UniProtKB/TrEMBL annotation:
This is ECF transporter S component. The chain crosses the membrane at residues 6-27, 39-60, 72-93, 100-119, 125-148. It comes from the Bacteria. GO terms for cellular component: membrane. Keywords: Membrane, Transmembrane, Transmembrane helix.
Amino acid sequence: MAKTKLLTTTALIAALCVVGSFIKIPVPPGTPALDAAPAFLSIAFLPAPFAAAAGIIGHLATALTSGFPLTLPLHLLIAAEMGIVVLGAALLYRAGMKKIAWLWIIIANGILSPLPFYFILSKAIYSAIAPGILMATLINVGVAVLAMPMLQKVFQRRGANIL
C-alpha cells in the first residue's frame, strides 16, 4: 500500500473503532464496547503495526467515553494489551493461520488480558470482570468474522485483495 493510502485506511479503521466505542456492551466492568471489531477486521488488510495502532486508539476512545473507570494508567495498560492482541492476530492471519488468529484473539483478549487485574486489584475484581470481557471479545470477534465476507466482496470489486 502507498503511504498515503495506508495512513488513510488506518485512520478510517481507527475512526470506526471510535464509533464502536460508543456502542457499549452491557457487561462488567462497564467499558466493553464494539471498539475492537474494526481493529480485528483490519488484520486482514492492514500491516500488523497499523492494525495494532487502530486497536489501541479504539480502546482509549472506549475508556474516554466511559470516564476512565479503572484510572488512566490501567486503561493505558489495557490499550497496550489490545495492541499486542491485534498485532499478534495480524501476524498470524498474514501467515495464513486465519483460524488460529481468531482463536488467539479470543484467548489473549478474552482470557489473558484481564489477568493483570487479579494481581493489581484483587481476585474479586478479576472474577467480576473476566466473564464480561470474554463475552465482549466474543461479540467483537463475531461482528468481525461476519463482516469479513462482505469486506472481501468490496475489495474484489475495487480490484484489491484481502488475505
